[in-house]
Amino acid sequence: MKFVSTRDNSKKVSAAEAIVAGLAPDGGLFTPEYIPAFEEGKIKELCRMGYEERAAEIMGMYLTDFTKDELLDCAAKAYGSGRFPKGEPAPVKKLKDNAYILELWHGPTCAFKDMALQILPHLLTASLKKVGEKKTVCILVATSGDTGKAALEGFRDVAGTKILVFYPNNGVSAVQKLQMTSQKGENVGVCAINGNFDDAQTAVKNIFSDRAFAEKAAKSNIFFSSANSINWGRLVPQIVYYVSAYCDLINSGEITEGEEINVTVPTGNFGNILAAYFAKKMRIPIKTLICASNSNNVLTDFFNKDGYYNADRKFFTTISPSMDILISSNLERLLYYINDCDDRKTAGLMQKLKTDRSYKIEGDAAKAVSKEFFAGCLNDADTKKVINNLFCESKYLCDTHTAVAVGVYEDYVKNTGDATKTIIASTANPYKFVASVLDALGEKAADNEIEAIDKLEQVTGTKAPAPIAALKEAKERFDGVCNREDILAVTERMMGIK
Ligand SMILES: *Cc1c(COP(=O)(O)O)cnc(C)c1O
Fold first, then answer.
1. What phi and psi, each to the nearest 5 degrees, are found at residue 351?
2. Residues 145, 176: contact at Cβ < 8 Å?
3. Distance of CA 461 to the CA centre of its chain
4. Do residues 359 and 331 touch, judged by C-beta distance below 8 A?
5. What is the pTM of this model?
6. At 231, is the pLDDT very low, low, confident or very high (cuts 50, 70, 90)?
């Protein structure tokens, strides 16, 4: 299997090369030249395996330059060494009627990003060896909150790597912020950036395409790569849990093999739901992909207005900050496939997005998106109602992002009457967004969000996960703030580039 850029598929690279580079040199995203499919009987086989083996099998269909043993080793290091619940990194729980929750937040930072970022450093280190790269890799991350911490934990003290995280100064929760600014490790750096997530993402993307800066860094024996979901090594482990959840539902007798399901995903950068799209194209029988957004509903409009994407709109800071995004980077990969792998078309649309902040897809591609996806959005007030209702009725406490997904799923059922069993991706532990969750339950949050952790425990009788409880004693280590234009200088200073 080779990988191509969504904007120029004439040059093909190996999986290892794609993972090492992160972003393609032309600014496009590396993506598999075609989407592989499960052979007859493969799902049955996967049903008999544990999570790590499933991961190695599924990733192996894309990472064909890795041996099965290498992939098993990466999966065991990520999911089997005590950082996730043993044997069950991503449990599926029945919520009500036809709805099942896929809990993706049992990793060390309590958000779904751990599912990919605990394995990416191992995939990347193996890839560096394969391509013979000896320079230190500097991982640059723009984060809407959860990626940053998950990447820091994944890469901390990994030999041959450094990691630098930029987060929007006023765009993350107090828990998210302290999780990042208190990060331990010798090879880590964290800096706030004045602006929102899109500003941070654009600034970081600009570093990747800055040739002169890359040459300068190379003199200090450093090169840059990405741990954002633009990196294929982030996306491929995410396909695994949708396939694995389907197998789990078969194994527990909730569905029969071949039965169709829906998948609902709370969406920001379009990475997580794109992984579900890949699972579908690999022949997991997914009927509808339900794309759930908060008030930054650019994707809702895109799917409901026949492929008209318009990022020229008001930006909202919401209680689901990891979805406060107007430029959903991974949509580019979807555009590429629904336009029959037409790289020039994709490049053209992305150019329009850059110059006009909008574009419109046409013809069969527009029809394809409206057929395969249902899209909806929820404002903050309705999101809080969902949290409250779920806790009162089902005693299930969910975070703000998951609540957006549950609310949009409920709207979908109301709209369509569809009784197909549905997996709802739960992307964060509720304690990660403790102030908003308390508020949703009608409780006044303490002035200090960190103190609110105790209060949520008392009010709900639930327990904060250990990494969040530990924040009560955490000390801030990184207090830097910079402007978008200073990002190069900050990167130089923090990475020791001369
Ligand atoms: C990152 C994140 C999302 C959005 O995922 P995308 O892959 O960017 O669409 C949703 N919820 C939480 C809690 C997240 O951290």
1. -65, -40
2. yes
3. 30
4. no
5. 0.94
6. very high
What is the CA(17)–ligand 1 centre distance, in A? 26
* Number of residues that make up the chain: 498
Q: Is the pLDDT of residue 229 over 90?
A: no
One-letter amino acid of 97:
D
Report d(CA 309, CA 299) in Å as an integer: 7
Residue ID of nearest Cα to ligand 1 atom 1: 322
* Helix (H/G/I), strand (E/B), else coil: 498: coil
Task: Tell me which DSSP letter residue 12 carries.
Answer: E
**Strand spans (E) along 341-426:** 358-360, 373-377, 422-426
Can you tell me the distance from the alpha carbon of 427 to that of 447, in angstroms, rounded to the nearest whole number? 26
What is the C-alpha to C-alpha distance for residues 146 and 200, in angstroms, rounded to an integer?
14
CB of 3 within 8 A of CB of 34?
no
Nearest Cα to 127, choosing from 39, 240, 14?
Answer: 14
Helix, strand, coil percent content, the chain, rounded in steps of 5 = 45, 15, 35
- Spatial distance between the Cα atoms of 32 and 35, rounded to a whole number of angstroms: 6
Helix (H) or strand (E) holding 226: strand 222-226
Among the listed residues 2, 86, 113, 385, the single catalytic one is 113
Q: List strand residue ranges (DSSP E) for 36-152, in order.
A: 92-96, 99-103, 136-142
pLDDT digits (tens, 9 = 90+) for 321-353: 999 999 999 999 999 999 999 999 999 999 999
What is residue 362's three-state secondary structure? coil
Helix and strand totals (H; E) in the chain: 22, 16
- The DSSP result for 194-225, as a single string, is SS-HHHHHHHHHHHHT-HHHHHHHHHTTEEEE
Beta strands in 312-388 (DSSP E): 358-360, 373-377
From residue 258, how far is each of 2, 41, 407, 425 by CA, in Å? 29, 11, 27, 21
- Distance of alpha carbon 176 from alpha carbon 319, whole angstroms: 12
* Region 78-100 average pLDDT: 94
Question: Are 72 and 53 contacting, i.e. CB atoms less than 8 angstroms apart?
Answer: yes
How far apart are alpha carbons 493 and 420 in whole angstroms? Answer: 54
Distance 100 CA to ligand 1 centre (A): 18
Q: Tell me the best of 149, 234, 269, 273 to mutate to test the pocket of ligand 1, counting ligand atoms within 8 Å of each CB and taking the most.
A: 269
Q: Is 113 a catalytic residue?
A: yes
CA–CA dist 243, 58 (Å, integer): 8
**H helix or E strand, kind and range, residue 265:** strand 261-266
Three-state DSSP at 142 gives strand
